[in-house]
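Can you give me the bound-state structure? Components:
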Amino acid sequence: MIVDTLVELLGFSAEDPAFWMPLVFMGLLFAIVVAATLLDGFDIGVGCLTLIAPRELRPRMLSLLSPWRDANEFWLFLGLGVFVAAFPNAWGSIMGQLYLPLCLLALGVLLRSVSFEFRLRAPLNLQQRWILGFGLGSLATAAAHGLLLARLVVGYRSGGGYLAFGLFVALCCVAAYCLLGAAWLIMREQGPLRLRAVFWGRRAVRWAAAGAVGVSVVLAFANTGVFLKWSDGPQWSLVACLWVVLLVCFVVIEITLQRMVTHSDGTTMLPFLATLLAFLVILGGLFYSFFPYLVLDNITIWDASASVSSLGLVLAASIVALPVALIFNIWVYWRMFGLSRAPVPPGLNRTGR
Amino acid sequence: MNTTVWLSQIQSLVSLGFMSLFLLIELGLAWVLLFFRLADRYSPGNAWMLAYRFWVRVYALAAILALAAGIPVLIELGSLWPGLLDRIGDVAGPLLAAAILTTFIVKSCFMSAMLFGQRSLSDTAYTAVVFMVAAGTTLSVLWVLALVGWMQTPAGTGFLNGEYFVTDWYQVVFNPSVGWLFLLLAAASGMAVAFMLLGVIAGRASSLPADDSGRQVFRAGAVIGLAAVLLYGVAITGYGRMVATHQPAKAAATAAYWQSGRQPDLILFGWPDEQRESTRAVLAWPHAGGKWLGFDEDGSLIGLDHFSGMQPPVALTFWSFRVALAVALAMLIAACGALWCMRRKYIEHGDLPAGWRRFFSCMTFLGWLAGPALLCHVLAGQAPFIISQTVTFMEVAGSTRPSHLVMGIAAHLAVYSALLLGFIHLLRHGVQYGVVPVARRRGRA
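Here's the bound-state model for the whole set.
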């Protein structure tokens, strides 16, 4: 039904590559953003938490992240790559407005990926310094995500109020990543680290919820188009449904974390899954509110997309790379859930060279 | 010129320069490591294997930095030059996507196996993985160079309503400059790695007894350095001729040739003064410069006066080229010196004279100069144009406030210098105390 409406509005036929190719790339971009948030999010969160963790727990927190680092480093590259290749005509108008938050993002990501790997190779007395670098890099990355989100929902308007909103969203975004990281740690590890993670999670969950509400409210009131879409459109039941799911998620997180303080049992995976679902709902809601615009009420994905021949080339390349990416990521991430298992010492089951 | 524009140019150069340092090491070491593996297969003893184990750790450091440094570069392509992709999106999009996908495949399929999988692979399979990493890294660099080369000498495209569209991908990728740029990069990375091999071995010899492995690597470093200098000579000659043909403004700035039709001296050193339109303190070779300048239709030489108001920054272009040449000269001296030191086949430890030891160890990172110098010459040399003769930096620059740009540059410089110091420190530490093996197991921690 939505496809028919769009086809009618744009005057394309549904089989026209100029119509469906941008849609495919939009889907791909959204999938990468979702994957990055779900698979790399806990990584950023645990990184932020190392800043407030006691010194002796930090190395363990980092080594828990170690198996996913190689894959986690790449999400931002892939996202930027798809964006620049598929939507070059929106790339500049969006990125050009975001100089400072993007600087923060670039430096944060640079610092955290380098610090993590260098710590493994550094002498013992310098490892704390690299752990600090990883923590600061993660904090910068999380804050930058918040600032970028804030600029995105207010339509790149600047001024005192918007700056305050940006800082508020940055704070909430850091809290949300901390919640994700803490929930992941609760699931991965027992003992003092789990106990700490429960307390961190409880502190973070309210700020994360406040941020989610704040972003939604500002998104609706700063953009009349979005407000109309939410309240007036035929899909109002869907919108209501998203809100209910989000509410339930936060309540579940709050209750399970509360229970973990008083009872030591319970399902340790539930907070993490609920947090993931909350992230997913927020991202889905944003996507729904923006679609089909990249810059609200200004640039649609069809305005922004590259020529059909370029898109075709990139699509062909993506089709070659997609299986590799999928297999690799499934291979890497298949033990992301549940309690962490200790590695097998080398030489037990293989003959070393 | 507009403050925002030149601050943006500075930041772009800083980020690209930082990335180039580690790209040179990564690219060069990847092939050198493959050579170590192959040499180990066909020679007795484990000297080459010991060398491999040490240098693969250095490679890991460089590869991590090179990849991570790509993030700021990619982001700045949008945040500093927002108008650029609107104009060249059709060309740049697929090339950037190809570079990113190639890097992704190399990293996900081969790099982890190379850095963490040595125990679980057979010798042949592992050597094949090392080859794939070297070849894949080279390929992804080639995609980026194709874009840089195309921005220098556009080919295979049409320009309509301020936007480029592709007519022939073959010509876009194999544009006139890509080959020379690639040879330059290959030679520069060979030199950077050779300097590092010689410097590290010489530095180690001052505190630790020399061993077979060190001696072999030292000789390999000298040979690689000499080969790289020769290749560099070929590449820079070809590049110079190409610039004279396709980019006369850059050629004239490089030669500091101010007035068209005057006697073309080959200026070796001097200080180009843009206000007075002349060069001070000249050391020149009379009449020898004509080969390196462009000709107009009448067959007379093109000087900088052809491009009044649109000329590149002369001093920067002039000096970046000479710095890039000076590095090669230093490499030539170092390589010949190293071969001279090795003329007796079995030097005992401590036989490398103390003077030579200090000389090599001071030059460990000298090869790095070539990267930023060449970048300056290639990119700043065609200013004010970002795409040769059609699109200027001014047109595609953003409207970011200069104060924000200054903050951004300062933050970048702080992080970059911290990471650079970290790299040098880890390398030094590894030379002194040996490297630690790093384990990473899938799904387990």
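A couple of observations. Chain B touches chain A through 78 residues (CB under 8 Å). Residues 119 and 443 of chain B are 17 Å apart (CA to CA).
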